[in-house]
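COURSE: Structural Biology Practicum
ASSIGNMENT: Worksheet 4, Part C
STUDENT ID: 0417
INSTRUCTIONS: Below are two proteins. For each, the amino acid sequence is given first, followed by its structure token string. Answer the questions at the end about the second protein only.

PROTEIN I
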Amino acid sequence: MSYSLLRPYLFSMHPEKAHEWTLENLERLHKAHLLGFAYPRQSMPTNCMGISLMNPVGMAAGLDKNGEYIDALAELGFGFLEIGTVTPKPQAGNERPRMFRLADSGAIINRMGFNNDGVDKMITNIERAKYKGVLGINIGKNATTPVERALDDYVYCLERVYPYASYITINISSPNTANLRNLQGANELAHLLDGIKTCHTKLANEYGYYVPLALKIAPDLEISQIDDIAKNLIDFDIDGLIATNTTLSRVGVEDQEYAHETGGLSGRPLSHQSTLVLTSFAKRLAGKVDLIGVGGIDTGDLAVRKLSAGASAIQLYSGLIYKGPSLVQDCIQSIANYKERTLTMTDEPNDFDDLSNTNKHDLGSANKA
């Protein structure tokens, strides 16, 4: 069935109910072997953080918080998946309703609050999955953990997920966990990354291979904050930056129903600001840290815009709600066209085409999901 025909039915449900219904039915289609042929996985080898991706279009964290639907989601054509955010202990998240559609703008507001079943349950789900592709795991802190003790939660999750992850994302940018974004401050971030890297080095030595680390940041940053975060990324040898999470801004949607709801705004209205932040980091990091662009991508052209701004790869979430799984293929095709145009103009590979030397750490395969 075409997604355009299914969407009115999904949009008749509450957004969170529609989310659950969609994942459950994707799982049924996967088990009936009806997904793979509809959304073939297109090959466009891309190197990001030293990892070889099948293609540069990934699934963003938040869609599958517990890793329950890895095999089904892998059949939608993504080049890589990121699951989570996961916390040490299970938590229910914020009270419902906590997700709202702003359909006129192709946007979503959510205040989910890191609802998940805890890291141990996620690991059980990963062990059950058959997927052998690139799997990122997004980690966070429990809401009951004081922000001053956040490092304890991140280290706990890091130690648990290390042998299962192709890369690990440190999420300090959700607006729905009290004071979490305080960790983006220069001193707070330096303390956090110092502790995480100490644990990370120990794990790499114990396991004999290196799993890259990425940091996921907010779009609501001042220039001074961008400067401080970029410096910390380089100082602590972080492999990747995911830009960006959702925004607290309501610019462009002020008059729409649900615009007054608290939470993070995602979708099309986020695209411009998210890309501006991505561009700012690209200038400051100058190729020393690989970038993944996420936020407001609902067309292939917007995916290309992230690459033009300096990203090596992109991730999708809210755009899928409005455009359906075909958005993955649309983005891949647009990126392929972009690559071809770039090669035609330069007759030489650009940074997007040849990232073979970006793996800073050669302790073994990073792609071990």
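PROTEIN II
(use this one for the questions)
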Amino acid sequence: MSQQNSVGIVAPQRAHFNEPIALKSGALLPGFELVFETYGTMNTARSNAVLVCHALSGGHHVAGVDASDPTNVGWWDNLVGPGKPLDTDKFFVVGVNNLGGCYGSTGPLSVNPITGKRYGADFPMVTVEDWVAAHARLADHLGIDTWAAVIGGSLGGMQALEWALQYPDRIRHAMVIASAPKLSAQNIAFNEVARQAILSDPDFHGGHYAEHGVVPVHGLRLARMVAHITYLSDSQMGEKFGRQLRHGEHKFSFDVDFEVESYLRYQGDKFASFFDANTYLNTTKALDYFDPAYAYDGDLAAALARAKAKFFVASFSTDWRFSPARSREIVFALLHNRRHVAYAEIDSDAGHDSFLLDDAYYHAVLRAYLENISV
């Protein structure tokens, strides 16, 4: 990768917290660790910090090249760096692997201090609210009283929204991209199919597969294949694959005939090689449970009344999993409360994954908003 406009080679850092954290489920998690990366320099006023929240399969490695693996480029590297829309010449950017993650933060792969074995299925369920509470501990650790902005796409956008609700005085701008105030029944259904694929895998062993020396590869593979379909638009899949045959003819078998089948199997195999099944189960449930309006009889405007931050909300035209209509729900609820909100509905044929791509118009809109954040 070219080092031009890159944050360069980066290495993860660890923060250990000895104080227990009370989770929304009622469980109490003892001391925990968060793995994070930082890019740019904190100014003397400590007013230029931006938190990047990751989506389902993301993590702390947001930008630059991993010091231990030169092929591992940050998942939002096209957005974060010197001179890029999230400009590290201006901002001090923090990426963190969420509590319960599988990239080094305390989670199902960690050793339970009580048993001396990996937590596995015994790791308590965590929610978006719990992640944000853990983020706040990290902010304290870094000496950050207030974030200039919290930004995220998809599930990361839910975290940015929750930051504005849980800590309204600790965030100046919330940037919610390709997200929703809660999942639709259809989205919950997709998540449940993915979970059942994992739970029904013979190698799952009730979530304690590590003790058996196996991984529920088949379940993880199928879960990712199902999810990946929802991340792409029909038009994009048609353009990339259409009905192209893998071997130029019908094989009249259940092996790969069509290129799209080959693509989905590749994505499933790749995902199953590095992601933890228990983390996947927990994270999809966190998605399902998130609903700020739940405690307000479904009234989103009432739920968002306590937010003080200015908002940037963006959606993508072909995103059918987190459609523009869902972003507009957030916008209308904020306007009802006379909050400052900028909204962009971006024309893209890439579906939900649009928020990860290097789209000129999308990046120009982000750049314009971020340039107007004073630090």
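ANSWER KEY EXCERPT:
Q1: The chain has ten helices and 15 strands.
Q2: The chain has a mean pLDDT of 96.
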